[in-house]
Amino acid sequence: MSRNSIRLSVGAALMGVALSSGSVLAEDVIKIGIPVGLSGANSVVAPSVVQAAELAAEEINAKGGIMGKKVVLEVADDGSGAAGAQKAFDSLIFQKKVNVLISMETSAARNAGLPIVTRGKTPFIYTSFYEGRSCNKYLYVNAWVPDQQVAPIVDYFNKNYKAKTFFLIGSDYAFGRGMLEFTKGYIEKTGGKVLGEEYLPMDGSDWTPIISKLKAAKPDALITSTAGGAPNVTLTKQLRAAGVNIPYGNLAVDEGTAKSMGPDAEGIFISGSYFTTIDSPKNKEFLAAMQKKFGANLKTPNDLSVPEYEGVYAYKLAVEKAGSADADKVIAALSEVAFEGPRGVIKMNKQRHAPLTMYLGQVQKDGSVKTLSTFKDVDPGAQCPNLK
Q: Which pLDDT belongs to residue 26?
């Protein structure tokens, strides 16, 4: 089976089974490309993203598809990095000829893929929280940016722990540095001070020297921003082993990854647009449908997988509003449609980004997240002011 282009039918992605669409003609289907890190840093969370897309496609197909056309998923492993993304995007757009890309990826993968998106004139709904201000004619984002996510953690540490000094740790790439640059600015704006800022390559796993610097600095609080998945696991495990017990805010951990960490994740503060504990009919329906479809194989729905589910529906609505899957018509429609899903009503109408209800939570002993505060309809701020 090809690593970079795996033809997957709904329900088959995680089993690695390649199924053809049988007698269905190419013009009778809508192909959704999902470039995602099945290997590399994102491999911890990618399976949950694919599952969310599978459920959305199954539900849509059960109700007649998109304008009568069957939805077919094309999943490609981007290796969680730039080189893999170039191959995955190229394969999906020019060989599989997908109608749209809908997926979460590392910022390195996204940045490497965007020139191919432009060349292929293919709509791309990016469903991953990220460092912000990525702008492209074909790009829309339905996940959070630092303007929406950082303040709840810093403000909570200021108010509840009287934290004035901070230490920042990140993965050395666009997301890690971008998130911590914004965080440092916000800390200083609110009267705090950053005592240290350290980075490790995205594929690095030995945080010992950085943790030594952290302990020597003796800050009031720690904030980290690592590549989603494996780096979160290794860093947190080593922090706990080193006896670090100051308030710890993680800007990159999702609920699913937190569960995979086990006891090491207890006490971490996270800020996001989705927790499984959201008490709404739509979220309960979604969780029940996921459980019914995947059973014991279900990966914990999270702030990276739920936007994938909603992104597939947003694309459906945009095609129906446009009356066509034509890329330019769909791009024009994407800012006008709104989908009500597990996170509430999401509309990507703020410079190709979306106002989001944000939650501050703390990871509990069993891996669940306790919601501490809710912030309604937080604006994403100025992201792409010059993009028409």
A: 57
Q: pLDDT tens for residues 323-377? A: 999 999 999 999 999 999 999 999 999 999 999 999 999 999 888 899 999 999 9
Report the alpha-carbon distance of residue 36 to residue 48 in Å, rounded.
11
* Domain residue ranges in the chain: 6-144+279-354, 146-272+358-378
Query: pLDDT below 70 — which residues of the chain?
Result: 1-26
Q: What is the DSSP letter of 42?
A: G
Closest alpha carbon to 308 in 134, 48, 110: 48
CA angle 77, 41, 52 (to 5 degrees): 55
Place of tokens 């060349």: 119
CATH T-level assignment (fold) for domain 146-272+358-378: Rossmann fold (3.40.50)
Cβ count near 95 (within 10 Å): 12
Rounded distance between C-alpha atoms, residue 301 and residue 145, angstroms: 20
Among all chains, which residue has been given the structure tokens 């703390």? 362
Which CATH class, in words, describes the domain spanning 6-144+279-354?
Answer: alpha beta
Secondary-structure percent of the chain, ordered helix, strand, coil, rounded to 5: 40, 20, 35
Q: Give dist(CA 381, CA 354) in Å, integer.
A: 10
Establish whether domains 6-144+279-354 and 146-272+358-378 are of one fold.
yes
**Cα–Cα distance measured from residue 277 to residue 127, given in angstroms and rounded to the nearest whole number:** 20
What are the distances in angstroms from CA 350 to CA 140, 228, 377, 378? 10, 25, 12, 11
Check residue 290 and give its pLDDT. Answer: 98
Q: What is the pLDDT of residue 5?
A: 42
Name the DSSP letter for residue 200. Answer: E
Structure tokens at 145: 């940016």
For residue 255, count other CB atoms closer than 10 A to its CB. 28
